[in-house]
Design a protein that fits this description.
globular; about 220 residues; mainly alpha; single chain
Length: about 220
């Protein structure tokens, strides 16, 4: 689930953007237009603490933005499955826990490193000859309401930091024999990684605080 969220909010790789390039242009444009309007509405609301994961806050805006991107990704991939707020919040909590675990194990990426990576990805996307991929990236930036410079210098690095930190954590878990090699046995890796995330969540769920009665996570 998170992989899709990152691909839309950051367009992390040319390959990821290309995965969407065959989508009907008019439909894709409508989805981006709707997403942009939804994000504008979300950003106009007052920001309050929505939940807390190991002393790290999740605001109402962060959750609603995450939800908006996930729903847009569902539509872009023509997936007819409704995602509940409980499922989305749990996924967001797990995302936070993975980054925190990367930090604890000393494999987290610094913001400076993420900034360098962001500029590298920008060059790759700008140099591609695939016009559909460029159009997709243009839409990704436009929905944020930021200029291209602001997007690559301020928005993208933060998301890249989280993504790269989790990637480093996964590599360490494979090296330590906790997870199987994804290349050698992708099915076993997917199952083991899902179990790892569930175990990580279960071991920290008591420390997750929810400040709303509308959503309550299950242990």
């Amino acid at each position: 689930m998170k992989k899709l969220a990152i691909s839309l909010s950051v367009a992390v790789l040319v390959g990821t953007a290309l995965a969407f390039s065959s989508f009907a242009t008019d439909e894709q444009t409508d989805i981006f237009r709707s997403l942009k309007a939804e994000l504008a509405d979300i950003n106009s609301t007052k920001e309050i603490s929505f939940a807390q994961v190991e002393n790290e806050d999740i605001t109402n805006k962060e959750f609603q933005i995450y939800k908006a991107y996930m729903n847009a990704n569902q539509k872009l991939n023509n997936i007819q499955m409704n995602l509940s707020d409980n499922e989305l919040l749990k996924d967001l909590v797990i995302d936070k826990l993975l980054v925190q675990e990367a930090e604890k194990q000393g494999v987290a990426v610094s913001l400076k490193e993420a900034e360098v990576h962001s500029q590298e990805m920008r060059k790759i996307l700008e140099s591609t000859t695939d016009e559909k991929a460029k159009d997709f990236q243009k839409n990704v930036i436009e929905v944020t309401g930021l200029s291209e410079e602001e997007y690559w210098e301020k928005h993208a690095p933060s998301a890249y930091r989280n993504q790269l930190s989790v990637q480093n954590l996964i590599e360490k878990l494979v090296q330590d024999g906790i997870l199987p090699n994804a290349v050698e046995d992708p099915d076993s890796f997917d199952k083991a990684y899902q179990n790892y995330k569930e175990d990580l969540y279960a071991s920290h769920s008591k420390k997750v605080k929810i400040f709303t009665n509308e959503i309550q996570l299950k242990d």
